[in-house]
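Weekly puzzle thread! Below is a chain. First person to post its structure in token form gets bragging rights.
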Amino acid sequence: MLTHKTPRLDLHGEEKALVYALVTEFINDNYKMRNKEIVVIHGKSTNILTKEVHDVLKENKLVEKFSLNNWNVGETIIYLK
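Winning reply:
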């Protein structure tokens, strides 16, 4: 369940080329801290960052599942193994 304490990574203003490194490092750090649920904020304008984030998540073996936040489609909720 999402709370104000759920770890979040805000990618607003980041370049597409940096998304892979930033998201992968965020996942690795939270996996080591045994967090099961994290959020990446990518915005909802052109979907360029959204697509890039989802491509990274599909490849990452530490990700159990992910989905857009129903209440804010500018965020993706990620569930770690």
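Puzzle host: Confirmed. Bonus trivia for everyone else. The helical segments are 16-32, 48-59.
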